[in-house]
Amino acid sequence: MTTASKNKQVNSPANQNGLPPFSLKDAPSLIEQVLPVQKLSIESYKEKMSSHAQVLVSLGGYWKGRKPLVLNKACILGCLLPASQDAIKDLEIFELLMGMDDVTMASRLVASKKLGLGESLPKQSYRQHVADAKRPEEIGDQLFDPIWPRVNAHIGTTASSFPELVEQLGVARFGHRPVVADTFCGSGQIPFEAARLGCDVVASDLNPAACMLTWGAMHIVGGNSKARRELLAEQHRIAEEVREIIDELGVESAEFDGKAWRGKTYLYCLEARCPASGWLVPLLTTRQVSKGRMAIADLVPDAKSKRYDIVIREDVSAREFTNAKQGTVIGEALVHSVDAVEYRTAIKTLRGDFRTEDGNASNRLRQWEVHDFKPRSDDLYQERLFAVQWQEDRQGRGDYTFRTVTQDDLLREQVVQDYVGKHLVEWQSKGWLPEMRIEPGDETTRLYRERGWTHWHHLFNPRQLLLGGLTLQRAGAAVATILNQALNYNSKLSMWNRHNGGGGVVQNTFSNQALNTLFDHGCRSSSTWFAILNKPHKSAKIRANSVRIKCESADSVVGPFDLCITDPPYGDAVKYEEILEFFIAWHRKTRHPEFASWVWDSRRALAIHGEDDGFRNGMVASYRNAAAQMPDNGLQVIMFTHQSTGIWSDMANIVWACGLQVTAVWYVATETDSALRQGDNVKGTNLLVVRKRREEQKTNRDDLAWELEEEVKRQVETLTGLNQQARGLYRNENLFEDADLQMAGYAAALRVLTQYEIIDGKRMSEEACRPRSKGEKTAVDSLIDFAVEVANRCLIPQGISESHWRELSPIERFYLKMIGMEAGGVSKLDNYQNFAKAFKVSDFRSVMQSAKANSSRLKSSEEFKRNDMSEGSPLHNTPLRAILYAMMELGKDLDTDDVLAHLAMNVPNYYAQGTRDLIVALCQYLGTVLESIRPDEASQARVLAQSVRNQRL
Ligand SMILES: C[S@@+](CC[C@H](N)C(=O)[O-])C[C@H]1O[C@@H](n2cnc3c(N)ncnc32)[C@H](O)[C@@H]1O
């Protein structure tokens, strides 16, 4: 890999018999016409779920918002591949390239030993296939060996590998090997995949800690075998040297029970003086120490010195262990008893919380100074070592034991503190230990408030500083990059998980992407520290000729590039710009040549976040710049998780303001249950495909309304049609589900809208930049609303006529639509959320029996309660509610005449012919869709339909 771009116009040998340069210059891309989103969702989900098998995770488990590589590959190939007249064939070829076709799937199942060689693919759902199969990237290039003749025959290429294909398509579109940019690269998932496919790459991020991860992806995971060998040797050398110093200091070794031992984990807690009793009390959230060793901590009162000895006992009975669950911190209070008198002090009282005259929160905690690395003796909070986990110091697996802290241990602590104290200032000045101030912020202010920590090294205890400093002063760029992973597992915010990993395990700081302070924490010794640092990384071949990693704001990155695939920080819950300072603080002064040109500051002020005007302006500047770096036929994919309906008009405005236009939108379910999910708010990823707007077209609202309606309908019908064709051909599943069709509706709306520069005489690129007041509904908002309505109109469940559909209230439509989808196997909450948003139903949960992420469902007729009939309920007075009630009564064997009499009472205007027709239609619909999930209810619905139809009036 070289840093200078070798990208020039070429007529490469690979192209001599393939596609001529620029022959696809103006061809629409496959991703603008089709994308197998259902399969892609399943593959993305599988990648996310196999967390440890993810290629780049070992570099930084703390980075949670990784976009799946399989999705990135789909975007890159989807942009490069042309869309032909034959969409089904295009899809077939695309699936071959993604390893999603039946033949390749069989090979994937063979590779996972779930299928014998030569056996045919079992008849089961794609989801089940993927669950059983290996992921294509786990198998490698040979998986794709058989596909090239078919791929070439369809596209006209002569490729026999991805780099060849990518180069030929790049030459045919842009005249050279394509350059893919990601100007918000984060952990580097998008540029890594681009480089692996053989594209040249420009990756940039405002945050140097993100750039480090991207650098690591290319140079550690993507490093050649020589570089990897050298790195391993460097890691071993550093581990050896540090161990020698630790041994010389003797701070991790001890002898007892006739054996030599080495410290494995050190457990610390805070200690504070109880103001009421005057006792010094350890702050322990639990007295349990290790489930695996059944170890607990006994607090033994020492009345004379008004403090507690902490005695560790192993192999206690199950009962004793359970009794030790409660520590001295209960809820938000410190609790202990002396002579049968309980003392309870609120933590905020302990800290002395108060409001300053200007109304700000403050307290009596001393604010630590730059050269502090442990509490001073008169600080409110002291830090105390309360247990040590020892490991037998011999080759092979020895014993483990948790022990009470001894005088010798305290002497060893003193040696560590003296050593760190002696070197701190020098190491800080040389950049081997952090000395960076913590700026106040949403995540960081609590560090001041809850502990008095003002500099980043205050988040590490002396042992952690010792290991960090000794390692960093010996590390090159690669080890420094991996060091972040070790720091993540070794700070005062690393929780001690006493229930896991045999004896227990020290968890990572960023387990929930926040900087939460702890009362007690675990600290790894050098052996477990180096176990993390030396963990082998997966290896992947980078085929790019040029990879440029820049630490720049997206609005000033310099290209040129042909494709730009980004995952910007839209309304991001994770405050990357704050929490990554935890790492920046360690590296900002070391100046490895590889990182020397980066700005070692999170530049919080430049970071894009939120959803207001600041966010919009930042996005506009970034995407305007990206467009300026690209040729006229360049393509962008903007990824964002769908959160609010407002996003669609935000996106339309951003696209407009940048002189771009939307050509497609896709929705892929990417997030897993565990990642970043708050409550039950499941996220998927929208892919917005955009190009430069080349002409200045004008229109007016009236014409636009027609056009929108036509386009939305056309789009939904095309996809429904593709579903049917594909079913007829070789599949037993839908290509697109309702949620995809709905997104296609949005896409169509954005496509129509953003092709115009001037609407009703207004220049939209200027209109889009106009500041908005909170809650203001702009012309764009109402156009989008209109488009959504049109899209929804196209999504009428089969079996209900358009005229009946129009008579229903939003919540009825929601219920009927979703019951149809449930019958089709849908149970993910995000589907319900999507349709609730689309149908403008705010209180959809009132009709849900379960709103769990992956097992949501509506209430059955029996599960509705009486108060769902009453005025407070959104279904109140609706025909649907009356029908469900009648079905419930039929289920209880009530006389049909009584049921009909109640129905007549419960439905306004029952005796009008139109009303009864509607009731019959809805009952018939329920009778059909419920058959596969609740046959009894289906039969009640059919009986009711029949009874209403035959009713004598
Ligand atoms: C959602 S993350 C990208 C995640 C990435 N796609 C991945 O898979 O890891 C957004 C990134 O945008 C970066 N960012 C925020 N403001 C920026 C700006 N003005 N210029 C460049 N990058 C910025 C953040 O540092 C963060 O790394």
Describe the 3D structure.
Mean pLDDT is 89; it is low at 1-15 and 672-682. 41% of the residues lie in helices and 14% in strands. It has a 7-stranded mixed β-sheet, with helices on both faces. The protein is of the alpha+beta class and 953 residues long. Among the domains are: 1-184, no CATH class; 242-533, no CATH class; 800-814 and 832-950, no CATH class. It starts with 12 loop residues before the first helix and ends with a helix. S-adenosylmethionine is lined by residues 63, 65-67, 183-184, 186-187, 189-190, 205-207, 210, 553-554, 567, 569, 572, 576, 606-608, 618.
What is the residue-averaged pLDDT? 89
User: Which strand order do you get reading across the main beta sheet?
Assistant: 19-2-1-20-21-23-22
User: Outline, from the CA principal axes?
Assistant: globular
Helix content: 40-55%
Name the bound molecules: S-adenosylmethionine
Strand content: 5-15%
Number of helices: 34
SS-based class: alpha+beta
Rg measurement, Å = 32 Å
Poorly predicted residue ranges: 1-15, 672-682
What kind of sheet is the major sheet? 7 strands, mixed
Distance between the termini: 84 Å
Q: What's the β-strand tally?
A: 28
Properties at a glance:
single chain; 953 residues; alpha+beta; seven-stranded mixed β-sheet; six-stranded antiparallel β-sheet; 34 helices; 28 strands; 41% helix; disordered N terminus; binds S-adenosylmethionine
Helices and strands, with pairings:
Layout: H1 13-16, H2 37-49, H3 69-80, H4 87-98, H5 102-111, H6 126-132, H7 136-139, H8 148-155, H9 162-174, E1 179-182, H10 189-197, E2 200-204, H11 208-221, H12 225-249, E3 253-256, E4 259-273, E5 280-283, E6 288-290, E7 295-302, E8 307-313, H13 318-323, E9 329-330, E10 333-338, E11 341-346, H14 347-351, E12 354-355, E13 361-362, E14 382-392, E15 400-403, H15 407-430, H16 445-451, H17 462-472, H18 477-488, E16 496-497, E17 505-506, E18 520-524, H19 526-533, E19 547-550, E20 563-566, H20 576-579, H21 581-587, H22 613-628, E21 635-641, H23 646-657, E22 660-668, E23 685-692, E24 697-699, H24 701-729, H25 738-754, E25 756-759, E26 762-763, H26 764-767, H27 779-793, H28 802-807, H29 810-823, H30 829-838, E27 848-850, E28 857-858, H31 879-891, H32 896-906, H33 913-929, H34 935-950
Parallel strand pairs: 1-2, 1-20, 2-19, 20-21, 24-25
Antiparallel strand pairs: 3-4, 4-5, 4-14, 4-18, 6-7, 7-8, 9-10, 10-11, 12-13, 14-15, 16-17, 21-23, 22-23, 25-26, 27-28
The structure holds S-adenosylmethionine (SAM).
